[in-house]
Amino acid sequence: MNDQETRIAELKKIVAAFRKDRGWIGESPKDIALSLVLEAAELLEHFQWKSGEEVKNEARLYGPICDELSDVLWWVLVMAEALDIDVSRAFELKTTKNNEKYPADAFKGLSNEERQRVYYRIKAKYRGGHPLAEDGEE
């Protein structure tokens, strides 16, 4: 399997068959969401106290990171199945929203610090405030 040849529907079928064979069905969306977050935390643990470069250069982390990332995807697919969500369509719609929310022109030519300020200003606007938005910019 590889990303260029594998469809999301195929991955959903693999997950569904594995779960069905073991009787692992019927979890609530809340429990699925908890499992997803727990797996994401296990993924995050591999990055704790390390820079991005350290993680990239540490060959021993590649396999464990792949495993945890796969676990996160697993639970995303379980949630999609439980709530009858078309992941590709949901992704397409969310990408459209993100393009509107974070227009590329708003970030072009900015330093990292300026990009962060713009990002938090936009977040504050959509959320009704954000602690990292500069005073008077919410």
Automatic annotation (TrEMBL):
Gene3D superfamilies per UniProt: MazG-like (1.10.287.1080)
Any one GO MF annotation of this record: nucleoside triphosphate diphosphatase activity
UniProt cross-references to Pfam families, sorted A to Z: MazG-like (PF12643)
SUPFAM superfamilies, alphabetized: all-alpha NTP pyrophosphatases
InterPro entries listed in its UniProt record: dCTP_Pyrophosphatase, DCTPP
Top-level lineage group: Bacteria
GO BP term, pick one: nucleoside triphosphate catabolic process
Name of protein: Nucleotide pyrophosphohydrolase
Species of the source: Candidatus Chisholmbacteria bacterium RIFCSPLOWO2_01_FULL_49_14
